[in-house]
Design goal:
Strand order of the largest sheet: 3-4-5-9-8-7-6
Distance between the termini: 58 Å
CATH class of the largest domain: Alpha Beta
Helix content: 10-25%
Order of helices and strands: HEEEEEHEEEEHE
CATH architecture of the largest domain: 3-Layer(aba) Sandwich
Structural class: alpha+beta
Number of strands: 10
Amino acid sequence: MRRYTLVGIVIIIIVAVLGGYWFFTHSSPQSAAFNFPSASGAASSTSAAAPQATSSAPVGPRTSPAGYTEYRDTTYSFSLFYPSELSVKTYDEGGGAETITFQNIQKGEGFQIFIVPYSGTTVSAQRFKEDEPSGVRNNPTYGLVDGASASSFYSTDASLGDTYEVWFIHGGYLYEVTTLKPLDAWLQNVMQTWVFI
């Protein structure tokens, strides 16, 4: 009886591995786009006015849609479109790390990108605790940012309150994009324009 149980477990494992292989090799995720669930749990849809990323990384600057401006960073090799009414500031965090803020204080809209050199292929528990002292990581969802595996989740920050965050690793850097929780769908529209250059 034990032998049949062991054979059954081995067969289940083989089927699961083959099924996973088929799923990942036959699914066709869209580059530079993802639909993480909004706070209500429903998948957000991009509005007709939201800009879209190109299907491949551009060599030169991209043409911004009306109401948006391109942010292009050659140091960290990415480009995105952000609403033109946001002001942009960069802060050198030392050790090759940087924070970029996009804010409109009057409207209460904005987001920030923290970028730090990172040699890992996944975010370790230690790194997460270092960058997210609250340790809160609610409703994690997985997708892609221009082909890079990404995780979005809800958290809390001592100075910001409840947040929505998107973290991903690319080209030796960890990117942590953060906004206020009510702006999750708004940030998703911005993130759909992200391309690595």
